[in-house]
Amino acid sequence: MNISDRLKQLKPSATLAVNAKALELKAQGKEIVSLAVGEPDFPTPEYVREACKKAIDDGFTRYAAVPGLPDLREAVAAYFNTFYNAYAAMENTMVTNGGKQALYNLFQALLNPGDEVLIPGPYWVSYPPMVQLAEGVPVVVPATADAAFKVTVEQLEAHRTEKTRVLLLNSPSNPTGAAYNKAQMDAIAGWAIEKGLFIISDEIYDQLVYAPAEHVSLCSWWTRYPEQVCVVNGLAKSFAMTGWRIGYVLAHADLIKAMTKIQGQSTSNVCTFAQKGAVAALSGGFAVVDEMRAAFRARRDLALKIVGSWPEVVCPVPEGAFYIFPDVHRHYTKAIPDSATLCTALLEEAGVALVPGAAFGDDNCIRISYAVDEATLTSALDKIAKVLFK
Ligand SMILES: Cc1ncc(COP(=O)(O)O)c(C=O)c1O
Predict the structure, then answer these.
(1) Which UniProt keywords apply (predicted)?
(2) Are residues 85 and 188 in the same domain?
(3) What is the pLDDT of residues 74-115, one digit of tens each?
(4) 98 pocket-lining for ligand 1 (C-beta < 6 Å)
């Protein structure tokens, strides 16, 4: 088969490799606990499911407008306005197949071949390949566990060249859970605007930030600099709706039009009745989200208490999302020299599936998702410790 050169440069997903191995072991009858997943373990709220079922019966089963149903776009604008005073209109929003397609559309719409995108690391696995698919160049700006996985303006500036076009921010972060505070965010956004960069702010975990930390959105920067900022969000993480594929974006109306062109020639509209469920989610109040946040917070504290007692492991307190990203490299040995080998050993010897830090650009770390109940989390962490300290 002749596969395009563009595709040959893409690495296969490390997350999927872990999953494949876990499934293989499960098929052999082994008991496997997965802390590798990037999705809430809660069900989608009932009123959202009901709204979707009703939408099917009401005939919302046909093609719809490419950028989204008007009532959902209005609800998305209202979300950004209510939570973050964005002053957005419907024309500044668009509905996409998950936050993922919003990001894909953005890179396709913004990048010319060779344009560089600054990506603070550790980073979400899909960012570099998406940039490459748009013929851009991902430039990783690494931050370590000792720096709480946050980059500074000085580090970003050191990686900027005349080809730098976009800065991609993800706070709270997958995989580290790190969330920038207002002073840090303002410093970075102010620098990027002054240098003429375009900022993509992936805020998919905005509802999962744990007090006293507060989510700092770039919506207010978008209001002031609509041609240089956009915000990506969606319902997957906040409303436990990963399979619904509902993402959205806040951007300048011209950029929305450009992305609509891309979506119109690739996937068309997001599933029409899923969009009706999304309207119900955004209009139904956020009490369910508050409950999920409280549960995640308790699990985070539990995970931190256990991992915090592990010797020579550095684990900054994640202020958001549902991951911890401990630096375990001081326990690497000749037999286990890196995060991938460690995760294979954990899977085979302890029956625990994790994603190696290397997949996110930091081989010193492992990503542990705490989107599981507390008993499962405790027993899985105990099993990890047995392999790590044997
Ligand atoms: C940082 C980040 N951005 C975007 C996404 C995309 O989410 P979805 O496409 O499911 O809305 C994910 C999902 O794991 C993520 O972790």
Answers:
(1) Aminotransferase, Pyridoxal phosphate, Transferase
(2) yes
(3) 999 999 999 999 999 999 999 999 999 999 999 999 999 999
(4) yes
